[in-house]
Design a protein that fits this description.
Layout: H1 4-19, H2 21-32, H3 39-46, H4 51-69, H5 75-81, H6 84-92, H7 96-103, H8 110-117, H9 122-139
Helix pairs in contact: 2-4, 4-8, 6-9
């Protein structure tokens, strides 16, 4: 298990990675433009020009969750200083079973799923975040899931 100082240092390093230009572009796209209504829309993104943005965001948060699960980061600290991982998972969670089947990977995003689903009222929180995301997407002009 990491010491408090090591955990704090790792949180700051994760924050620095989120500030990298390409990662910031990917996170902005994911947050503002990626609003899938079906697993088919998610698969279309994986086969299209936004594939790199999608994979960059979800793999980042799955990796960060794995650091929590393996003791490199305290779960309470991680959840206290982050919320974006919950919003990220909210967008893919309804389609996760289909994605796992289509990708042939039953463990796809399992680290992120485990972390988020341990939060109090996780299901209700995810539903609320999905609704907020749909509303934000509508304000942006109803952009499709893979819109650039």
């Amino acid at each position: 298990m990491a010491t408090s100082n090591e955990g704090a240092d790792l949180v700051l390093k994760l924050y620095d990675l989120r500030r990298e230009v390409r990662m910031r572009e990917a996170r902005d796209w994911f947050r503002l433009r990626f609003n899938p209504g079906s697993s088919g829309e998610v698969m279309a993104v994986l086969e299209g020009p936004q594939n790199d943005f999608f994979r960059m965001v979800v793999s980042y948060w799955d990796m960060a969750a794995a650091l929590v699960h393996h003791g490199a980061l305290d779960e309470g600290l991680f959840n206290d200083v982050n919320a974006e991982h919950v919003g990220t998972f909210a967008k893919v969670e309804p389609f996760l079973a289909d994605l796992r089947a289509a990708l042939g990977n039953p463990d796809y995003l399992v680290q992120l799923e485990r972390l988020v689903m341990r939060l109090p009222d996780a299901k209700a929180r995810l539903a609320q975040l999905r609704e907020q995301s749909r509303e934000a997407g509508a304000r942006l002009g109803g952009k499709a899931a893979g819109a650039g």
